[in-house]
Write a structure and sequence with these properties.
The structure holds two protein chains of two kinds. Chain A is an alpha/beta fold. Chain A is built from six helices and eight strands; from the N terminus they run βββαβααβαββαβα. Chain B folds into two domains: 62 residues; 36 residues, no CATH class. The chains are: A alpha/beta, B alpha+beta.
């Protein structure tokens, strides 16, 4: 464990060459350390997302959380910004890919980087993990935590989000770990089954873990859906996954 | 925010937000994860005026039961208003009253 950690707000190059904010946490010292890009959930670049970055630092990873709503509003007005994002149909997928790859390149460019990178995301960020991991070869391991709309009917697709991530499975690059609650409806257990079948058919390396007694977002200790037993077990799966592929 | 169910209503009126009263132009009605309410999903309504910036917003996050009660209350109030003031009833009120 790394008890001496450093965390700060930085900016890095993102989609379309624009600079965006990111929260950057890493162990103190020269390392070298593998990196993890954390894609925040719909409640935004919030306290919990920053806690996740510090948790990765505590476990020996340099973590960057790009502020994916950067172009919609400032983090000081997070709830109003979220309202604008959802009213507009969400962050365009091309923008998310560009910002996530920018965060990866920021981590790789640090002098104490091993050059190996993981990707993790929660809620809408879980969907974005599958999206980014299918459109970039920057990452050596990916973790989707209860990403909704990986499976999406054609009539729910939009110009900003034109393709369901499940339909990108053939291009999925890194091994994928999935963490899901069986009481979740977005994604539902049937949708998780469908995603798993697609991964299997495409011959991809993956592990899915499904938890009884848990619904959506069961890692978040400040929400009613928090399930400490299931969350602790699932975090163990995350560490094993990254130890295997990033260290 | 994983169901992405968003419906929009164009409207006019006034709302009181963090910076005082402002003119409303639309409402975004969402069924998804709420920001503040301790619910898995909620019926969220943002009364907004996009032309006046992010802060021009009045937000509510309701339980499904609360949202259904609200619909009933709105319909009942409009119906009573239509009977009391039939000369000012709008087509929208007529439509609701016919349900």
């Amino acid at each position: 464990m790394y008890r001496n950690i450093i965390s700060e707000e930085v900016s890095h190059r993102g989609y379309n060459g624009e600079d965006i904010l990111a929260y950057y946490a890493r162990p103190a010292g020269n390392g070298p350390f593998p990196g993890v890009v954390v894609l925040h959930h719909m409640p935004g670049w919030d306290e919990w997302s920053c806690e996740v970055a510090r948790k990765f630092a505590h476990h020996g990873y340099a973590a960057a959380v790009p502020y994916l709503f950067h172009r919609f509003g400032p983090p000081e007005q997070m709830d109003d910004t979220i309202a604008k994002v959802r009213a507009g149909g969400g962050v365009p997928d091309a923008m998310t890919i560009g910002d996530a790859v920018g965060a990866a390149q920021f981590l790789k460019a640090q002098p104490n980087s091993t050059g190996k990178l993981g990707l993790i995301g929660f809620c809408s960020g879980g969907r974005q993990v599958v999206l980014v991991a299918s459109n970039s070869k920057e990452f050596s391991a990916a973790v989707d935590c209860w990403g909704g709309r990986v499976v999406a009917p054609a009539d729910t697709l939009t110009p900003a989000q034109p393709k369901a991530p499940i339909d990108m499975t053939a291009d999925l690059h890194p091994p994928l770990l999935g963490i899901f609650g069986n009481e979740d409806q977005a994604p539902s257990p049937d949708q998780v089954n469908e995603h798993e079948a697609a991964l299997k058919q495409a011959g991809k390396t993956y592990e899915f873990h499904r938890y009884d007694g848990a619904g959506h977002g069961f890692f978040a200790a400040d929400r009613a859906n928090y399930r400490p037993v299931q969350a602790t077990d699932a975090w163990g799966k995350v560490w094993s996954w990254y130890d295997k592929y990033l260290k | 925010m994983c169901s992405w169910i968003v419906e929009k209503a164009q409207l006019s009126g006034s709302g009181k937000g963090a910076n005082g009263w402002f003119e409303l132009t639309e409402a975004n009605v969402v069924y998804d994860h709420p920001y503040h309410a301790q619910l898995d999903h909620a019926l969220c309504i943002d009364f907004v005026n996009p032309g006046q910036g992010l802060g021009a917003r009045v937000a509510v996050e309701l339980t499904v039961e609360g949202a259904l009660e609200l619909i009933k209350a709105i319909e009942m109030a409009l119906d009573r208003g239509r009977h009391l003031h039939p000369d000012v009833a709008t087509p929208r009120v007529e439509m609701l009253a016919l349900k």
